[in-house]
Amino acid sequence: MKKVEAIIKPFKLDEVKDALAKIGVGGMTVTEVKGFGKQKGHTEIYRGMEYVVDLLPKVKIEVVVKDEEVEKVVETIIKTAQTGRVGDGKIFIIPVEDVIRIRTGERGEEAI
Predict the structure, then answer these.
(1) Which stretches of the chain are DSSP H helices?
(2) Nearest Cα residue to 98 out of 68, 74, 64, 70
(3) Which of 1, 85, 101, 103 could form a disulfide with 111 if both were Cys (CB 3.0 to 4.6 A apart)?
(4) What is the total count of domains within the chain?
(5) What is the pLDDT of residues 22-71, one digit of tens each?
(6) Helix axes 13-22, 70-81, angle to 10 degrees
(7) Residues 74-97: tens digit of each pLDDT
(8) What is the domain-level CATH number for residue 64?
């Protein structure tokens, strides 16, 4: 099993969520986060004062899937989250040793 974490632009969330549901992803965790990469940040002027906004709003989507589903999930996220501009985000793939469903005690792929 693998955990796929995707950091994407907030306005792409609904599109990515719907696309993942269409390919059979049954659950996900979504967190509002802030950060920066190559995009760095920008300056804004508010009431005549200049402010540096160096942590940009993003959304982190986390899904745990079977090993054979990883590439399909990654391709779906790329296809739906990509705008072609700096700041589209990143995808991280992390090995998952075990999963336990609290309600039933099921373990492994049955618990996903």
Answers:
(1) 13-22, 70-81
(2) 64
(3) 101
(4) 1
(5) 999 989 999 999 987 876 666 667 778 777 777 889 999 999 999 999 99
(6) 150
(7) 999 999 999 998 889 999 999 999
(8) 3.30.70.120
